Amino acid sequence: MIRAIRASKTAAEERAVVRKECAAIRASINENDQDYRHRDLAKLMFIHMLGYPTHFGQMECLKLIASPGFPEKRIGYLGLMLLLDERQEVLMLVTNSLKQDLNHTNQYIVGLALCALGNICSAEMARDLAPEVERLLQFRDPNIRKKAALCAIRIIRKVPDLSENFTNPAAALLKEKHHGVLITGVHLCTEICKVSSEALEYFRKKCTVGLVKTLRDIANSPYSPEYDVAGITDPFLHIRLLKLLRILGQGDADASDCMNDILAQVASKTESNKNAGNAILYECVQTIMSIEENGGLRVLAINILGKFLSNRDNNIRYVALNMLMRALTVDSQAVQRHRATILECVKDSDASIQKRALELIYLLVNENNVKPLAKELIEYLEVSEQDFKEDLTAKICSIVEKFSPEKIWYIDQMLKVLSEAGNYVKEDVWHALIVVITNAPDLHGYSVRALYRALLTSSEQETLVRVAIWCIGEYADLLVNNAGMLDLEDPITVTESDAVDIVETTIKHHISDVTTKAMALIALLKISSRFPSCSERVKSIIGQNKGSFVLELQQRSLEFSSVIQKHQNIRSSLVERMPVLDEATFSGRRAGSLPAAVSTSGKSPLSIPNGVAKAAAPLVDLLDMSSDDSIAPTSSSANYLQDLLGVDLMQPSTQPGTMNPSKAGADILLDLLSIGSPPSVQNGSTNGDLLASIDAISSTSPPAPSSMMDLLDGFGPTPPTSEDKGPVYPSIVAFESSTLKIEFNFTKQPDNPQSTDIVASFANLTPNVYTDFLFQAAVPKFLQLHLDPASSNTIPANGNIKQTMRVTNSQHGKKPIVMRMRVGYKIDGKDVLEEGQINNFPREL
């Protein structure tokens, strides 16, 4: 049969041979042919190993086991172990045969039964046959004792409660001279200690000294050919003894003291030029690290691991790195001595060793060694393989940020990383770099010049381009004027035209994505204000994107062109430098320890009375309503455009029916105008608002394309007012000053209790005409706000206009509606800004 199967050239031929043989075996089974039963079962085992079904032969195994002869029983037990497992119900029928064979006078039949029981023992069989196995642990023949110990291990794993029955017999096995019995006895004791704390204490008191003596005798024993492996006497027994000693010494000072000397002897005298010796040394190191405190031994163990790192075998180096990571928590100073060797492992050709060594180096870094380690890692970053760059870059950035001794060093290292592997740097990392730069006024000039130089040579690194473009937009005047020069840098000649050139190149570069191009457009808008002589050229470059197929770029191009052409008087205020971004706030938000919107003010929260006007604050304060209704005051200037654009916001949660910006658009560091995020789309048209990244900050346009709103040019026609469909709630005075009064009227639709329709009435309390009227509002993340255009952008003297809005409260019934509002208008060409908080909404809304 075997010859025919091996001669088959195709799988079909093999299946045909197997089918034929199976048919013959079935016929033989049906005929109850006892002479050929063991041959048929041998064939079935071979067929089973080929993967074909052989369940029809299971009962034949039981018949052979019940046979009186040793050859039949041997084939029967072999078939039992191969063809059945502990989940088979038919296995219940073999328990009685096993019990009889365990009590058989022929020790070879007893051995067969023990082997079978050790391989397929179930919990029920373990309970039934445990007494027989316990008795056989004291059998006269060492081979039976050895097999009984292995079978007892299986029984204890299946039924841990039976461990107490084997404790004393297992302890007796530890005194054996026969290595085969001794190693199985040690293994049995180890398993018992894992499942029984009482047995563990018993072995600590009764067996620790004996185990130490046994290990010493084996370590000092002369050459014995019977047990010698590569010049070491029975390394397998060495390892088993060390594992048991580790369990006994863990958490027990007395047992640890008892084994210190022998562990030092094994660690210092075992040969390390053979694999067997290295296996013993590794197990010895694990034992030393696990038992109670002994500083000298641990230093010795870590030095052994240091030698392992110099081994040519990758497996040995890998396990050494694993152990050193565990040793760091025990003795970091001893591990630090092998820092140079570990650093070399980072440069290894094996990917597994690279990653493990990098993780270990990351844990070794501290304030004292961060500079040399970061230097080595960055130098290796230049030549590392592409697959490894991402992990290496992430670790370098984390190290530099966490242990940076000074800001200029941090900026220098991050620039090197951005220049070498900027495409692997994550968003929050380069965001953090910008935060650090904004918080270092004396380094603004140095940073923008360094980034300009880097951009000239590494323009293919997308992240570097973004950071450089952001800084050029903010600090272009410092770049051109060489302001803030440090002693360590060389002067650089950059003209206004050069600054515009490099931004224009970024916009036109084929690999620049939408986010980068949008950042470049904003940088150009800022440059046009910093350098009036370049306004026309900037206007031309921005205008080239008016027909862009990318809606984000098209919208920004149209808006920025409008700013340059029609709103010269507010452009300088609009593009003033970003306020300093709070590092602690940003770091806390990255760690997830702060709410999404927090105040940038260091002052304590102060409740503002409803409707009381206050100095304009950054919109981060305007939206800081996630935890309470108080608003933190700020000392920023009264220019509302600067405040509106200099914001620090997180992305609001997405609600049905709205299309929020991408995650990049929600972050302050994608620049002033939510770069990289598509504008919100509602009612089938695009929102023309500059503040597209802020959830419902300003009105959306009505469906008709011709009535698209322009924030800077006014509003389109008034859409039809929807009729009331729900109960009427009492009106409130949302805001009142000497010049303006705002009233809110509420309606709710019965089938949608989360939504509230609000009609705002704006009353002019003066004899003057208000022009360019603009109402803006902001709400916390649990609210969604939709503003329709006002009925007019001009309020006549002592007249009024109306504007409708809808607020959706996702926490309806749990949290009340709160809102920050801002109103801007002109009186005789003079800008007026009024601002307040509305917190007297009816609770039932």
TrEMBL record:
Protein name stated in the entry = AP-1 complex subunit gamma
Which keywords fit this entry according to its UniProt record? Cytoplasmic vesicle, Golgi apparatus, Membrane, Protein transport, Transport
Please give the Pfam families that the UniProt record associates with this protein. Adaptin_N, Alpha_adaptinC2
What family name appears in the similarity comment?
Belongs to the adaptor complexes large subunit family.
Function as written in the Swiss-Prot or TrEMBL entry: Subunit of clathrin-associated adaptor protein complex 1 that plays a role in protein sorting at the trans-Golgi network and early endosomes (TGN/EE). The AP complexes mediate both the recruitment of clathrin to membranes and the recognition of sorting signals within the cytosolic tails of transmembrane cargo molecules.
Which parts of the sequence belong to the GAE domain? 727-842
Listed under GO cellular component are: AP-1 adaptor complex
Topology of this chain in the membrane:
Peripheral membrane protein
Quote the subcellular location field of this record: Cytoplasmic vesicle, Clathrin-coated vesicle membrane; Golgi apparatus
Asked whether the UniProt record includes RNA-binding among its keywords, one would answer no
Q: Which GO terms describe its biological process?
A: intracellular protein transport; vesicle-mediated transport
